[in-house]
Amino acid sequence: MPIENTRTYDVIVIGAGPVGENVADRTTAAGLSTVLVESELAGGECSYWACEPSKALLRPVLLRADAAHVPGLDSAMKGPLDVESVLAHRNRMSADWQDDGQVEWIKSAGIDLVRGHGRLTGTREVSVSSPEGDTVRLRARHAVALCTGSSAALPPLPGIEKLLPWTSREATSAQRAPQRLVIVGAGVVGVEMATAWQALGSRVTLLAREGGLLPRMEPFAGELVTERLREAGADVRFDISVVGAERVGEGGNEVRVTLSDGGVITADEILFATGRAPRSQDIGLDTVGLNPGDWLATDDSLTVTAVPGHWLYAVGDVNRRALFTHQGKYQARIAGAVIAARARGERLRTGRWAPHSSTADSEAVPGVVFTDPEVASVGLTVREAERTGRDVEVVDYEIGHLAGAVQYRPDYHGRARILIDRERQTVVGATFAGPGVAELLYSATVAITGEVPVERLWHAVPAFPTISEVWLRLLETRRDS
Predict the structure, then answer these.
(1) Same domain, 25 and 116
(2) Which of 157, 214, 322, 389 stands 20 to 30 A from 274 (CA)?
(3) CA 283 to CA 15: how far, in whole Å?
């Protein structure tokens, strides 16, 4: 017979992914009793179907790409990857889709965990339906934080439910490489999975509705990634979309895809990497005056603006401020501090770069695309600067001219760009494309968030020979232009 009980906490967090865990960690550390509610695996999307497994698939691919161009290693890198070993490593990095380790950490941090589907039922109230059919009613003295994340958004294609398409989840957890894989989408998921599965033995066709890959980044980044994908054997097509698709063959083991140009492709699997949707459809938003399925708008304190009383927070992907795990964890640290301050009756310290304000969401969002070559960016692009009316100076440099780059890879080809605010004379945007550039990103992020004057950057001396010397070359290029 179903059991119903009621528990009261200071803070209720719905969603035990990296974002929810960080909110709970901060509020617990502040002395507030906190409970996490999770309907799937503790650890969330990032741990099992996104960041961790995707990078486990990509690491050997990128390492081989670099080593294959280094004298002494190049001949040893000509053979295929050991796909079975790569997939086994991916499985280990995803903890074989078991959350025992995450649950152990949650308990060790003094946080309670309730498994089941959580829904708001009113102000500071949550009802949790457990897998056993029981109901747990939770009440919060101070705050409820919605950290439910996002899920893959499928296009409105007729009959798409019968296709059994891959989303990012299937693409990162598949236990074999399909012989032929069609990928629809030119963003991060599309290009990373094209890079991984092409190297793991699939014949990849990548379809981009836009005129280039990675359309939200500087154009040169997508151009370099396109070049390498095509060299690796992928079929990359632009300005094209899918108008129809169906399962065919014996037992529906093939997908026939009809394209907007009249062409037809037959593949074993099709991956739709066409965006994200908020996981907010069935979490009781209607009980507090919000629309189910909507993104949740917040202010810089991560408080949901449409709900009075400063008790409801939306943190991570579900607020659409910046759809990155690391950015969600940043928001979680701020939200935890805000909840704790309000619980103690303290006045919030808000404003640009203040402790209770998630300023980085709008001014310094870092991101890495783990393709060959890598792409790393933070802050504004030229297009965004033009759209927002920022007067910026654009400085470019070919990374391959650096001694450190040639040491990294003799045929190194890459590009760096920084944007400098003409009035303030600080860096407001940076993009790097080339092997190993992910490790340049934090320095750029510090320069932007620290509002370091360009003249001060002359005194930040990069070691020789490293790729970080690109910072000096960018300054010299600007000086000599």
Answers:
(1) yes
(2) 389
(3) 11
Give the structural domain span for 190: 160-274
Q: Are residues 225 and 251 in the same domain?
A: yes
pLDDT digits (tens, 9 = 90+) for 99-158: 999 999 999 999 999 999 999 999 999 999 988 889 999 999 999 999 999 999 999 999
Q: Residues 184, 207: contact at Cβ < 8 Å?
A: yes
Tokens of 194: 């094209």
What CATH number did the domain enclosing 412 receive? 3.30.390.30
Number of helical (H) and strand (E) elements in the chain, helices listed first: 16, 21
Number of domains, the chain: 3
The answer on 343 and 219 residing in a single domain is no
Judgement on whether residues 12 and 147 belong to the same structural domain of the protein: yes
Structure tokens, 175: 């236990």
**DSSP alpha helices (H): ranges in 233-297?**
none
Does residue 74 fall inside a structural domain?
no
Relative to beta strand 150-152, strand 276-278 is antiparallel
Model confidence pLDDT, tens digit, residues 373-432: 999 999 999 999 999 999 999 999 999 999 999 999 999 999 999 999 999 999 999 999
Same domain, 17 and 132: yes
- Does the predicted model carry a pTM greater than 0.85? yes
H helical segments located in 130-217: 160-163, 168-173, 188-199
Cα gap 372→57, rounded to integer Å: 13
Same domain for 9 and 106?
yes
